[in-house]
Design brief:
179 residues; single chain; mainly alpha; 7 helices; globular; Arp2/3 complex 21 kDa subunit ARPC3
């Protein structure tokens, strides 16, 4: 429970810091620290139930802080967390290039999903080339910060009491030959 609380508070602090950065840095260039946090937590989280609670609470916090449709970020954070958990189990995301690629792809998908859900509920929102370019820039910025986010949240989790063995590594089973 201590790991849960510490990671939640660290991710919530990242969301608040994101709000501060958005006032300093222009929007496509400002990283989505809440999204980086939930992906980083999802890549190392053991078990699904408590992780989904964490993703929902963080997404609801983002909804409250951003003033968006209630439940929008909560739903998308749940989906993002699940994609990170399952991708962390199936893919070798230990290298820098693979992490950057994964975070960029998830960030772009998150932006696209956020946009599509917003167009469903709000009128006057149109997709265009400018939105596509800004979402791509935003995704690349998030991807470039991925190795730092993974390292930071891994250290926070270990500091809070999670064991280092929860770092997922690619497991390669070697066939055992009878002697």
């Amino acid at each position: 429970m201590k790991v849960f609380l510490v990671l939640f508070l660290a991710a919530l602090l990242a969301v608040m810091l994101e709000g501060v950065l958005a006032t300093i840095i222009m929007p496509p260039w400002a990283p989505d620290l809440g999204l980086l946090a939930i992906i980083s937590i999802g890549l190392r989280w053991r078990g699904l139930a408590l992780g989904l609670v964490l993703a929902y609470l963080l997404g609801s916090s983002v909804d409250v802080l951003s003033g968006s449709l209630m439940g929008l970020h909560a739903l998308l954070f749940l989906l993002t967390f699940m994609s990170a958990v399952f991708a962390g189990r199936q893919l070798n995301l230990k290298g820098t290039v693979s992490l950057v690629g994964f975070y960029t792809a998830v960030s772009f998908s998150y932006g696209l999903s956020l946009y599509l859900v917003s167009t469903f509920f709000l009128s006057g929102v149109e997709i265009g080339l400018r939105w596509f370019v800004e979402n791509l820039i935003h995704s690349v910025v998030n991807g470039l910060l991925a190795p730092g986010a993974v390292a930071l949240f891994s250290r926070i989790a270990v500091w809070a009491g999670a064991d280092d063995s929860s770092e997922r590594a690619l497991y390669i089973e070697t066939p055992v030959r009878p002697a």
